[in-house]
Amino acid sequence: MFHVTERLLLRPAWPEDWPEVLAGVGEEAIVRNLAKVPWPYGEADARQPQNQCLPNFIVVESASGRVVGSCGLAPTEGEPEIGYWIARDAWGRGFATEAGRGVLEVARMLGVERVTAGHMADNPASGRVLRKLGFRPVGSARRYSLARGHEVDSVEYVLDMSDDVSMPRAA
Fold first, then answer.
1. Across residues 65-88, what is the average pLDDT?
2. What is the pLDDT of residues 27-48, one digit of tens each?
3. Which of 91, 76, 44, 70 is closest to 144 using CA atoms?
4. Which residues are bridge partners to 144 per DSSP?
5. Nearest CA-CA partner of 166 in 96, 79, 104
6. Could you give the number of structural domains in the chain?
7. Domain CATH for 7
8. pTM, to two decimals
9. Which domain holds residue 126?
10. Which of 29, 32, 104, 171 has the smallest number of CB atoms closer than 10 Å to its CB?
């Protein structure tokens, strides 16, 4: 499955993407904010296939053709949860919000009615992205961070797709 936004191409990961994935997610500043990614993150990790049960995309900047991140949904306790990472040199350009919006558009087309999310409490930038996407905070929790090797405080969110009037609805 592919999806195009204003500046991005969201597409499946291909085996030859691993060097760009490793370069983008393989630094501690990125991986420490992802719950299910180990540190250190190496070639074997970057070569792992993505779960394709739900939309899960490599984020490609259309203008340059460069992989700048990943964004998708993963099954978590019965409800899909959105997750994303953006390479450090692409931070501050709105790619996480744009990719997230694209993933939510695809989710809506697939009939997904509710999406959850969470971010490490010490990563407020991710919370700003989630709020821009229409997620509302619903509390806090402790999440295990594979990279950090222990539980950390997390802020939890939910998006009821039927309540979100800013996104197009599937016909």
1. 94
2. 888 989 988 888 888 899 999 8
3. 76
4. 151
5. 104
6. 1
7. 3.40.630.30
8. 0.90
9. 3-163
10. 171
